[in-house]
UniProtKB/TrEMBL annotation:
Keywords: Hydrolase. It comes from Saccharothrix yanglingensis. The keyword Hydrolase applies. The lineage of its organism: Bacteria, Bacillati, Actinomycetota, Actinomycetes, Pseudonocardiales. The keyword Hydrolase applies. This is Glycosyl hydrolase. Residues 677-746 form the Fibronectin type III-like domain. It comes from the Bacteria. Pfam families: Fn3-like, Glyco_hydro_3, Glyco_hydro_3_C. GO terms for molecular function: hydrolase activity. InterPro entries: Cellulose_deg_GH3, Fn3-like, GH, Glyco_hydro_3_C, Glyco_hydro_3_C_sf, Glyco_hydro_3_N, Glyco_hydro_3_N_sf, Ig-like_fold.
Length: 779
């Protein structure tokens, strides 16, 4: 790209020059208005339909004509594909033409970055719908998650997208929070390792991964969306922050999104200690920090720490927020006035613009000869956003994430039980509802429900249809029973009659994902307690009283309290996506051997304050309280149709405070069919300077074995993995005794050994060892 009439190539457009030199040359040419234009996005179509972002319509002010709006330039284009049902090729052409007009209409012809959501696949019409992140956690399979992310990223790149707003690295703290489905689990190591894999896959495709929500968002009081966070600095440092550290160091993320939270009274969007001192200073992050949608405005309207859009802009910019999304309200003229008056130093603007332009330069957007047409537009052929390769990955992820919680009665698998598969009743509100398979950021739930005349866009059978296909010789009957939510009990009697005529009953219950109260799970769809929504609990009780074996199948976005029910079997699937019904049906028949493990524990009772398995000793059951918080199914739990034996444990008895120890065991498939076990390594520090969790996951390995096959699983645990935040706020490796535990869940422990950490106490920082490498080899 060259200035009109210029005879020589502008230095900033020369790909042969160093990036820093190019960016500095361009920055020197920009006016204040042109600089600020690089720090904002535009969301065309924001005022149409129901809200898909908080307070969307409150800030949906009419936009000026496009040429006037973009004359100074533009930083980002918001959700060209994800705002409405757009044919992929049409969307790609619109994006290309928009970029072409932008380049032609501005002095320096700087293209915009296009960003989209990709929380469970590309959030676009006709795109593959993958399982939600909570299912990624249940798979305990970082390799498959990385492959999934790379394929999703390649599809996005193909149509001209540059940035993906994923992954979510919030650690589950209270499953009543509606966005629990978007989290990977309640353990920071699991979240960090899986999240880093997704980040790495997305970045490897050329898409800028955006880590969110930084930080503390999932710890909101009472599980309410956007509620204040009451959390001490040690818990924040040891539970909330590690997944972000891991995804930056191990995943190579180039963008971070601040959270909506306010932690101890300070919103992250206005917190320089978090966004500048920690993120950039101690962690060395050099990428771009973007605002969560309207997050800068919320400093004024929701948090009350700013009195005007300009004050909100000043707080956010100086704290370290580079780009206001999804549209301009604060970083435009309100911020410009403060800069012109000297209230805000223009140097802060220059720093943010330098980061934005550096990223655009790295993406090739500043290069001479850059063309707006994406590969899809250049081909000119219909675009398949749901190709066979992605469907195969969706199937793999779904099958590996289904968790068999209970099979005490031995009724499963139905295909192997003889008596169970001739007459099957499939009842419940989620049985014949395709939307029950998807989370709130899947396009059909996120946007498609606002367009009832538009077809779903992807092939996705309901569970009822999948059961009929899985059991072609069985008589399959069905009844709704009740809706997902509400108090209409009129259909329960019919469901009971259908159940009485069957050999086995599949009670398909759970959630319907939505946004801002339009569902039972999803953003803004928080729960008062962990009872099954609506009257689904009453339906389940009635089915159990009918006297036939009942298998409870949960299609949900959070764990629900199940202690009051005794079904013959329980199968949990966390919104398993477009291939999810086949995966669940395969587990029911035995075609798929379940291998998923719980990334969140399942509570026994629905009342009281929910907790996670990462509790200290005082958080466990004891004589000091009449309330027993022991879960019904613990973190890491999941059954199989085969059996596994762990033997041959080996470990040294000393661990140098600056060294490592190998912990190994033999895992053998002692059953009659191929299956996968997740071998889990836990740590407990019984005496420390601050209280420590009774169990903490420090390593895991998903091991697939044929019947009779055996592998030696070896964990290499560095002493840094025992570190925690001490009383002085520094992360320390303390000497003394720790317990290492190996098992198949956080409570199914097969071996324990006391190991002494020797030497001297050590303080460690961001460069510490973050991962426990693991190998599985033939003995």
């Amino acid at each position: 790209m060259v200035n009109e009439g210029a005879a020589v190539l502008n230095p900033w457009a020369d790909p042969g020059k160093p990036t820093a030199e190019r960016v500095a040359a361009l920055l020197a040419e920009l006016t204040l208005e042109e600089k600020l234009a690089q720090l904002v996005g535009v969301w065309v179509g924001i005022s149409e339909g129901e809200e898909v972002a908080p307070a969307q319509h409150e800030f949906a002010e009419p936009l000026p004509p496009w040429d006037e709006l973009t004359k100074p330039g533009l930083g980002q284009l918001t959700r060209v594909f994800g705002t409405g049902p757009v044919d992929p090729l049409v969307g790609a052409k619109v994006l290309a033409e928009t970029q072409r007009k932008l380049v032609a209409n501005t002095r320096f012809g700087i293209p915009a970055m296009a960003h989209e959501e990709c929380l469970a696949g590309f959030t676009a019409w006709q795109a593959t719908v993958f399982p939600v992140p909570l299912s990624w956690g249940a798979s305990f399979d970082p390799e498959s998650v990385e492959r999934m992310a790379r394929e999703v990223g390649l599809v996005m790149r193909d149509v001209g997208v540059h940035q993906g707003l994923a992954p979510v690295l919030d650690v589950t703290r209270d499953p009543r929070w509606g966005r629990t489905e978007e989290t990977i689990g309640e353990d920071p190591y699991l979240v960090g390792l899986i999240g880093s894999a997704y980040t790495r896959g997305l970045e490897s495709s050329g898409i800028v991964a955006t880590l969110k929500h930084f930080a503390g968002y999932s710890a909101s009081a009472g599980g309410r969306n956007h509620a204040p966070v009451h959390m001490g600095p040690r818990e924040f440092a040891d539970v909330v922050l590690p997944p972000f550290e891991m995804a930056l160091r191990l995943g190579g993320a180039r963008s971070v999104m601040h959270s909506y939270a306010e932690v101890d009274g300070v919103p992250p969007a206005a917190d320089p200690a978090l966004l500048t001192d920690l993120l950039r200073g101690r962690w060395g992050f050099e990428g771009v920090v973007v605002a969560d949608y309207f997050g800068v405005s919320f400093l004024e309207t929701a948090h009350g720490v700013a009195g005007s859009p300009g004050e909100a802009a000043a707080l956010a910019l100086t704290a370290g927020v580079d780009v206001e999304l999804p549209s301009v309200r604060c970083y435009g003229e309100p911020l410009a006035e403060l800069v012109r008056s000297g209230v805000v130093d223009e140097a802060h603007v220059d720093v943010a613009v330098t980061r934005v332009l550096t990223q655009k330069c790295e993406l090739g957007l500043l290069d001479e000869g850059w063309e707006p047409e994406s590969p899809a537009v250049k081909r000119g052929e219909p675009v398949d956003l749901d190709p066979p390769a992605l469907r195969d990955l969706a199937r793999t992820m779904a099958e590996r994430s289904v968790v068999l919680l209970d099979n005490e009665a031995g009724v499963l698998p139905l295909g192997a039980s003889g008596a169970g598969a001739s007459r099957i009743a499939v009842v419940g509100p989620c049985a014949d509802d395709v939307l029950a398979l998807m989370g709130c950021y899947a396009f059909p739930n996120h946007v498609g429900v606002q367009h009832p005349d538009v077809e779903l866009g992807v092939e996705m059978p309901t569970l009822l249809e999948a059961v009929r296909a899985e059991f072609p010789h069985a008589t399959v009957t069905t009844a709704l029973g009740c809706e997902v939510s509400g108090d209409d009990r009129s259909g329960i009697a019919e469901a009971v009659e259908v159940a009485r005529d069957a050999d086995v009953v599949l009670a398909v219950l759970g959630d319907r994902a939505g946004l801002f109260g339009r569902g039972t799970s999803g953003e803004g769809c928080d729960a008062e307690d962990l009872s099954l929504p609506g009257v689904q609990g009453e339906l389940l009780d009635a089915l159990l009283e009918a006297g036939k074996p009942v298998v409870l199948v949960l299609l949900a976005g959070r764990p629900y309290a199940l202690g009051g029910y005794r079904p013959a079997g329980v199968v949990q699937a966390f919104f398993p996506g477009e291939e999810g019904s086949g995966a669940v049906a395969g587990v029911l028949s035995g075609r798929v051997n379940p291998s998923g493990k719980l990334p969140v524990q399942v509570p026994r009772g629905s009342g009281g304050q929910p907790t996670t398995y990462l509790h200290p000793k005082l958080g466990a059951v004891g004589g000091v309280s009449s309330v027993d918080p022991t879960p019904l199914y613990p973190f890491g739990h999941g059954l199989s149709y085969t059996s596994f034996e762990l033997t041959g444990f080996e470990s040294a008895e000393e661990l140098p405070s600056d060294g490592e120890v190998e912990v190994s065991c033999l895992v053998r498939n002692t059953g009659g069919r191929r299956g996968a076990e997740v071998v889990q390594l836990y740590l407990h520090d019984p005496v420390a300077s601050v209280t420590r969790p009774v169990r903490q996951l420090v390593g895991f390995a998903r091991v697939e074995l044929d019947a009779g096959e055996e592998r030696r699983v070896a964990f290499r645990l560095h002493a840094d993995r025992t570190s925690f935040t001490g009383r002085d706020g520094r992360r320390v490796v303390e000497t003394g005794e720790v317990s290492l535990l190996v098992g198949c869940s956080s409570t199914d422990i097969r071996w324990e050994r006391t190991v002494r950490v020797t030497g001297e106490d050590r303080y460690v920082g961001h460069d510490r060892v973050l991962v426990t490498p693991v190998t599985a080899s033939t003995p």
